[in-house]
Amino acid sequence: MNEKKSSDSFTLTNNQTGDSFDFPILKGTVGPAVIDIRKLYADTGYFTYDPGFTSTGSCESRITFIDGENGILLYRGYPISDLAENSNFPEVCYLLLYGELPGPAEMKQFSHDITYHSMVNEQMNYFLRGFRRDAHPMAVMCGMVGALSAFYHDSTDINDIQHRLVSSHRMIAKMPTIAALAYKYTLGQPYVYPRNDLKYSENFLHMMFATPCEEHEVNPVIARAMDRILILHADHEQNASTSTVRLAGSSGANPFACVSAGIASLWGPAHGGANEAVLNMLEEIRTIENIPAFIERAKDKTDPFRLMGFGHRVYKNFDPRSQVMQRTCHEVLESLGIENEPLLDIALELERIALEDDYFIEKKLYPNVDFYSGLIFRALGIPTSMFTVLFAVARTVGWIAQWNEMVEDPTQKIGRPRQLYNGAKNRDYLPIENR
Ligand code: SDX
């Protein structure tokens, strides 16, 4: 990539020695500029220190941009609200992968390519049988996706652009199939093959809910809601799971192994696992009267409880995705005729109270993408244990787009952070009889 050189530089002065060091400032198209510290250690003998990378840019990217202060999220420059309203998930996949919205011919070809990669090798069914039936679906996803490189070894040469194209299409196409396999396996039901006559989200829901016993028509309202949810979760800059995929990929690991690492990271309750944790929290709160006690627990530093679905490393204003999610939640409940959803009442009251509470206002804690998604999934008949699996299905295109961008970036190196060491200094070994 051509870094955007700037005449500006940042001078760092060591107050102990009086030495000064200049580091170039690189500016992007929008968002904060960066101080290029790649020569810092060589010039100064010092590392930077930034656990959690709160102030560290790990790469240059053109895919997604977040303005956390103003609640803005752009996929290749297009606002997420526009895409959620007007686009569809396969088209957003094309946009994230190739940088532009497709024309009709490009979209037709891309849809064909994804559709005709949607089946998985039949041998994967035997691999699946190694899991317990009560295994958490995310554990199954980690294993099954990591195993893809054992079945599709013909597209793992990351330096071959055709291999990267095929493995990218395979990943996007097969994730819904594997997710539905994992779900059916836990139910003890036979799995349902993908169908080439169905669109992506319809196909996913059909594989999740159809059985060989009768015809299964996917409700178009549910299919549209699923498609919109997949769009909202597709990519999000250098979040924990995407950074995991990039770091794994920086060693030259194959894309299937990298995505499997991303799934493992996403599973954490502080990240993609939060949608499952939100539902469990709402069920634990149980009544509106119990909300104040949970708000106090969330504020109590001695209590590990946090308000799941609230807060974000980047958004210090509303998460634009949660606004679309809230609207979608009301639409889905209304279209399904679900008038009485007590957990939604609790969620709405919890949001109202939290947003008026000084603690949440001062710390800029707003509902994030996970706060409402679980309520929609529950209304769609999806079990809580599958919520993060759906997040992984959506985020796969983001992981793959970012992985491709990293592989194609001539400046990329293997990721190898340093540390501040506070362990024992050099000491002599003592034989056990002398200890
Ligand atoms: C996702 O990065 C991404 O883009 C992620 C994601 C994506 O699309 O990839 O957007 C998806 O992961 C959304 C986040 C889902 N996680 C949750 O909803 C879990 C609950 N939220 C928190 O765990 C937390 O807010 C994080 C992990 C999301 C963000 O943590 P940070 O940025 O490290 O912030 P922090 O923990 O330093 O919190 C700042 C302060 C702390 O208080 P002080 O130490 O300053 O006194 O706010 C407090 C925290 O204790 N705080 C909360 C809180 N979140 C932060 N207090 C109560 N409840 C919360 N939810």
What can you tell me about this protein's structure?
The protein is mainly alpha-helical. The chain has 18 helices and six strands. It has helices spanning 40-44, 80-86, 89-98, 104-115, 124-128, 137-151, 161-187, 200-209, 220-232, 240-249, 255-266, 274-285, 291-299, 320-335, 342-356, 358-362, 370-379, 387-408; strands at 9-13, 20-26, 34-35, 64-67, 72-75, 78-79. The strands form two sheets. Strands 1-2-3 form a three-stranded antiparallel β-sheet. A three-stranded antiparallel β-sheet has the order 4-5-6. Strand 5 and strand 6 form a beta hairpin. Helix 7 packs parallel to helix 8. The protein is globular, with a radius of gyration of 24 Å. Bound molecules: s-citryldethia Coenzyme A (SDX). The site of s-citryldethia Coenzyme A has 22 residues, from loops.
